[in-house]
Design brief:
Strand order of the largest sheet: 1-2
Shape: globular
Structural class: mainly alpha
Oligomer: single chain
Radius of gyration: 23 Å
Order of helices and strands: EEHHHHHHHHHHHHHHHHHH
Number of helices: 18
Distance between the termini: 35 Å
Length: 506
């Protein structure tokens, strides 16, 4: 593998605040375990709490940041129309979100590698506050410009946040535990959407009409968004993270803007097979618009939309748990698990979206837009069928996202390269979301939207198959991961003779 990472060590003096963690000495000449309060595990009662600088705790912090920021954003958008009666303004705002998201997201690996995870994640979280605030304002003045501006700002911030999150989730865990880490993150993150969805459900539970959610709903989301951006500052720097066996994350010690821009190109050049996953990236956010607006908003009143939202995100938690743990089955080779995951995803794509086709045949956009149309309530006869369909849509989304992240994580353990992979993923999926929100804003027939979702999902799985068959390996040698870094094997190797399968327990 070609590299461009030879670096000249800087001669500037390093401050104490920027110095690397202290190390214990040993008599064998081998790297020793880092010392200090953040590397000490503790017991509370009979429960062992991992060290603060360990991957499980750091992933937990990131998960709760996403719980409070994009998790609440999902709760708002999952209502359909961002909680408004007419989805037009929300669609235009989301076009702005995903347009800027797609551009910034694709290059976000450069920013995350240069600025560091903590700053990238915190700045990324603040945009969600303004997005929610814009719809609180819109409730009173109907000024569509503010949501569109806030959407563009949120897209910039989200591109950075999700790149940092993806890099942490894929590079911090030991190789044998990536599926579980992905599932832990996805469960906590979607718990935010579940709790967020309970807010409008509680506030609108006695309303059987169709309309906008209350000011109190938006205000509650704003408070939670702000807390998430602040929480990001409690992370430790990626270079200080230490796994249970004493190994460290493979990074660049001295990143520069030049090295990271070149690293983006180097990732595409040396790992060109990643393009086989690009269609899966594109499909991964395409279906949200149809599900939120073409199903939930189109057919149901406010309180039922809120209930559907709770069930949708709860099903995501279940899907993440099932797929995350299945992908880490230690008794089955990773190459075999990758092939099995592909088969399962193709089967459930046909099954769940086949059921969606039967549902979509029952109505058109013109019918649900008529003045005499009465939105359905959870008391309406026949509600159970679409309720379960919507739950399966949520389960499927979590399965899809978990598999995509796991496939990327199976290609490398290098944190710098995985940050770029995460940027590609979020940039491409956001471009797709921007296109789909615009299509919906132009009032495309719901059946056309549905067909595009099903075709993209199935087709992208077929395109990804060669990569899964030929590039996923049972393990990646540490020497190979170091080729895309300026670190040495002594700086990142385990300090104890523990196999990586002896994973940290959350």
């Amino acid at each position: 593998m070609a590299t461009t990472n030879e670096k000249v060590e800087p001669t500037t003096t390093t401050s104490a605040a920027d110095s690397p963690p202290a190390y214990d000495g040993n008599e064998r000449g081998q790297p020793a375990r880092s010392t200090g309060w953040m590397y000490k595990s503790r017991r509370v009662g009979g429960i062992k709490i991992p060290a603060y600088a360990s991957p499980p705790i750091q992933l937990g912090v990131v998960a709760f940041v996403c719980f409070l920021c994009p998790g609440m954003f999902n709760a708002v958008t999952g209502l359909g129309g961002a909680g408004q009666l007419d989805a037009t303004t929300a669609n235009n705002a989301n076009v702005a979100v995903y347009s800027t998201f797609s551009v910034i997201g694709f290059f976000a690996g450069t920013f995350a590698n240069r600025m560091g995870i903590k700053l990238t994640l915190s700045f990324g979280g603040i945009g969600y506050f303004f997005y929610t605030a814009s719809f609180l304002s819109y409730n009173h003045n109907q000024n569509a410009g503010f949501p569109i501006f806030a959407g563009a700002l949120t897209g910039v911030c989200a591109g950075l946040l999700w790149c940092a999150q993806g890099a942490i989730m894929m590079s911090y865990p030991p190789e044998a535990s990536k599926g579980r880490y992905i599932s832990w993150f996805w469960m906590i993150f979607n718990l935010g959407a579940v709790i967020g969805s309970l807010i409008p459900l509680g506030q609108n539970i006695h309303s059987q009409t169709s309309g906008s959610v209350s000011d109190g709903t938006y205000a509650a989301f704003m408070v939670l968004n702000f807390l998430g951006a602040v929480l990001a500052w409690s992370l430790v720097d990626a270079r200080n993270v230490q796994r249970v066996d004493g190994s460290h994350v493979v990074l660049m010690k001295h990143p520069t803007w030049q090295s990271e821009l070149l690293g983006l190109w180097e990732t595409l050049r040396t790992d060109s097979w990643i393009v086989f996953l690009f269609p899966m990236f594109f499909a991964s956010n395409w279906f949200y618009t149809y599900q939120f607006n073409g199903v939930n908003l189109a057919r149901f009143n406010v309180r039922t939309r809120a209930l559907n939202n709770v069930l949708y995100w709860t099903s995501q938690i279940i899907g993440a748990y099932v797929f995350g743990y299945a992908l880490d089955m230690s008794k089955v080779r990773r190459t075999t698990r990758a092939k099995a995951a592909w088969v399962v995803m193709f089967v459930i794509t046909m099954a769940i979206w086949g059921g969606g086709y039967a549902w979509q045949k029952q109505y058109t956009r013109a019918e649900v837009s008529a003045e005499d149309f009465v939105p359905e309530d959870w008391t309406t006869s026949g509600y159970v069928g679409p309720m379960f369909l919507y739950m399966f849509y949520g389960f499927y989304d979590a399965a899809w996202q978990t598999c995509v992240y796991w496939f990327m994580g199976a290609l490398t353990n290098n944190g710098r390269k995985l940050a770029n992979f995460a940027g590609f993923y979020k940039g491409i999926q956001s471009a797709a979301a921007a296109i789909m929100f615009r299509i919906d804003a132009l009032k495309a027939p719901y059946m056309n939207e549905f067909a595009s979702c099903w075709a993209l999902l199935a087709g992208s799985l077929v395109i990804a198959l060669p990569l899964i068959l030929m590039k996923v390996r049972d393990t990646i040698p540490l020497e190979e991961d170091l080729k895309f870094s300026d670190e040495t094997i002594e700086e990142v190797m385990p300090t104890e003779g523990l196999p990586e399968t002896h994973d940290e327990k959350a």
